[in-house]
From TrEMBL:
Domain of life per record: Eukaryota
Lineage: Eukaryota, Metazoa, Ecdysozoa, Arthropoda, Hexapoda
Similarity-based family: Belongs to the enoyl-CoA hydratase/isomerase family.
Pfam family, one: ECH_1
InterPro entries according to UniProt: ClpP/crotonase-like_dom_sf, Enoyl-CoA_hydra/iso
SUPFAM superfamilies for this protein: ClpP/crotonase (SSF52096)
Protein name: Enoyl-CoA hydratase
Length: 331
C-alpha cells in the first residue's frame, strides 16, 4: 500500500511548490537532483510521479520541473501505474492530475525522442497505453486535471484524457509539436473533435497556435478558468463536489456518454445502450434516493455549487488573489 501523508504548499521566488510526502516503489515526495560529477545536476528519475490523498481524493503529480514536466518513457510508465492503482482503489472515487513546479506538462521529453529517432526505434509510439501515460484508453473513474503554466503537445493530449480541466488564467495550451514535425499519438485526434467540434479541432491541429485560458473556456476546451496559483486547489474542490454523490449511477451515465460519443453508430443504439447498462448497484442507489426524498429533509448532496469544501488560505495567497482581481478589473 502507499504510505500517504499530507500535502503542504509553500510560496517561493519561483512560484508555488507542492511538497508531498509518500513513498512506494518509485513514487516519492520530491524531485531530488543528482550530481553527475562534472557539475551538472540531473533529476532523480525515481521521484518523477507524486501520489497523495486528500481524504478520499487521489492526487497524482508530474514532478520533472526542470523539464517543465516533459514526460519520458520511465515517467510515462510510472504515471500509468499510479492511475492503475487509483482505479483499483475502492476508497477513492475520483483523482486530480497536476504538474508540480510551474507547468502541467510540456509534452514528451524531446531529448528522449531525439535518442529514439537517431536509433530508428520510436518506442514512444509503440507503448500500448500511450507515450505519456494511459492516454489510449478510458480511465474507469473520473479524473480532473489542474492546468498551470505550459500544457502543450502531448501534455495537452494528457489533459484531454481527463474528464474535466481546471485552467489557470495565465496558462497556455497548444499543439506546438506542429512546428517540429512530431505527430499526435495520444488521443487528441480522437477526443478533440468530440469536445470542441470538427472545425475548431482542425484549426488548432493545423496551426499549432497557443490558446489562452479565456479562449479555451469559450470553446469548451476547459471547464473552469481560475486565478494563477489556484488550479490544484480548485480542481480538488471540484473533485470533492463530485465525490459527494452516489457513484454507481454517476459512473453509468459517464460510461454511456463516452460510449455514445465514440462508439455508437445511431441514435437507436445510443438509447438502447443507456437503458440496458443499468446495474444492480444503480437500482440500489435509486431505491435509497427515493426513500431519502420521501422520508427525510436530507435529500442528498446539492448540485447547485461546486465550491463545497472550505479551504483556509494563507494571507499571502489572499493578497495575491486580491491583486490579480484588481489587475483584471483595470483591464
Amino acid at each position: 500500500m502507499f504510505n500517504f501523508r499530507r500535502l503542504s504548499v509553500k510560496k517561493t521566488n519561483f512560484g508555488i511548490v507542492f511538497n508531498l510526502e509518500c513513498n512506494k516503489d518509485g513514487f516519492s515526495s520530491s524531485s531530488k537532483l543528482q550530481n553527475t560529477g562534472d557539475g551538472e545536476h540531473v533529476e532523480n528519475e525515481e521521484n518523477t510521479i507524486l501520489v497523495d490523498k486528500d481524504e478520499n481524493i487521489t492526487l497524482i503529480g508530474i514532478n520533472r520541473p526542470r523539464k517543465r514536466n516533459a514526460i519520458n518513457a520511465q515517467t510515462a510508465e510510472k504515471l500509468s501505474a499510479a492511475l492503475n492503482h487509483f482505479e483499483a482503489d475502492k476508497t477513492s472515487p475520483i483523482a486530480v492530475l497536476y504538474g508540480a513546479g510551474g507547468s502541467f506538462c510540456s509534452g514528451y521529453d524531446i531529448q528522449d525522442l531525439e535518442t529514439q529517432a537517431e536509433s530508428g526505434n520510436l518506442e514512444y509510439l509503440m507503448r500500448h497505453e500511450g507515450s505519456v501515460g494511459p492516454t489510449r484508453r478510458h480511465i474507469s473513474k473520473p479524473v480532473i486535471c489542474g492546468i498551470n503554466g505550459y500544457c502543450v503537445a502531448a501534455g495537452l493530449e494528457l489533459a484531454l484524457m481527463c474528464d474535466l480541466r481546471v485552467m489557470e488564467d495565465t496558462a497556455v495550451l497548444g499543439f506546438i509539436n506542429r512546428r517540429f514535425g512530431v505527430p499526435l499519438s495520444d488521443g487528441a485526434t480522437v477526443r478533440l473533435g468530440a469536445m470542441i467540434g470538427y472545425a475548431r479541432a482542425l484549426e488548432l491541429l493545423h496551426t499549432g497556435r497557443r490558446v489562452d485560458a479565456k479562449e479555451a473556456l469559450n470553446i469548451g476546451l476547459v471547464n473552469r478558468m481560475v486565478a494563477t496559483g489556484t488550479a490544484l486547489g480548485q480542481a480538488v474542490n471540484l473533485a470533492f463536489s463530485i465525490a459527494k454523490f452516489p457513484q454507481a449511477s454517476l459512473l453509468q451515465d459517464r460510461n454511456n456518454l463516452y460510449a455514445n460519443a465514440y462508439s455508437r453508430k445511431s441514435f437507436r443504439d445510443a438509447i438502447q445502450n443507456e437503458i440496458m447498462n443499468t446495474s444492480k448497484e444503480v437500482l440500489k442507489e435509486l431505491k435509497e434516493g427515493v426513500q431519502r426524498f420521501k422520508n427525510s429533509e436530507n435529500k442528498g448532496a446539492k448540485t447547485n455549487a461546486w465550491h463545497i469544501k472550505e479551504k483556509t488560505l494563507p494571507d499571502w495567497e489572499k493578497a495575491e488573489i486580491v491583486h490579480e482581481n484588481k489587475v483584471k478589473t483595470r483591464k
